UniProtKB/TrEMBL annotation:
Species for this entry: Paenibacillus stellifer
GO function terms (MF aspect): glycosyltransferase activity; peptidoglycan L,D-transpeptidase activity
Active site: 71 (proton donor/acceptor), 87 (nucleophile)
Family: Belongs to the YkuD family.
Name assigned to this protein: L,D-TPase catalytic domain-containing protein
Domain (L,D-TPase catalytic): residue spans on this chain: 4-111
Family matches, as SUPFAM superfamilies: L,D-transpeptidase catalytic domain-like
Classification of source organism: Bacteria, Bacillati, Bacillota, Bacilli, Bacillales
Cellular component annotations (GO), alphabetically ordered: extracellular region
Keywords in alphabetical order: Cell shape, Cell wall biogenesis/degradation, Glycosyltransferase, Hydrolase, Peptidoglycan synthesis, Transferase
Pfam family, one: YkuD
Keyword Aminoacyl-tRNA synthetase: no
């Protein structure tokens, strides 16, 4: 049975999906801008919601830090930049794949 975890590397704007300690996928992401940085730390996925509405694209994966999550975007040009209010933005097709793959309580490490 897989043992998934996620590492978000803020320095290279990438989200890595790991099984045990092996990277199985990498996805480009958009992260928080200077005044609303994405908070480094250890979190878990506490909720999942398809089609959350608003600017959150196709899926929302809520983190154990209130008001922060991994989500899709209606603005794919923002991926790769420091553009959000602290959340981690992914291409919609990427966040859908991630949401199908990882269960609730998956560990998420955000590092600088």
């Amino acid at each position: 049975m897989p043992n998934y975890r996620i590492i978000v590397d803020l320095s290279d704007h990438m989200l890595y999906l790991l099984d045990q300690d092996t990277v199985i996928r990498g996805f480009p992401v958009g992260i928080g801008k200077m005044l609303t940085v994405t908070p480094a730390g250890e979190y878990t996925i506490i909720n999942k919601q398809p089609n959350p509405g608003g600017p959150f694209g196709a899926y929302w994966l809520g983190l154990s830090r209130p008001h922060y999550g991994i989500h899709g975007t209606n603005n794919p040009a923002s991926i790769g930049g420091n553009v959000s209010h602290g959340c981690i933005r992914m291409h919609n097709q990427d966040v859908l794949e991630l949401a199908r793959t990882v269960p609730l309580h998956t560990r998420v490490t955000i590092r600088k």
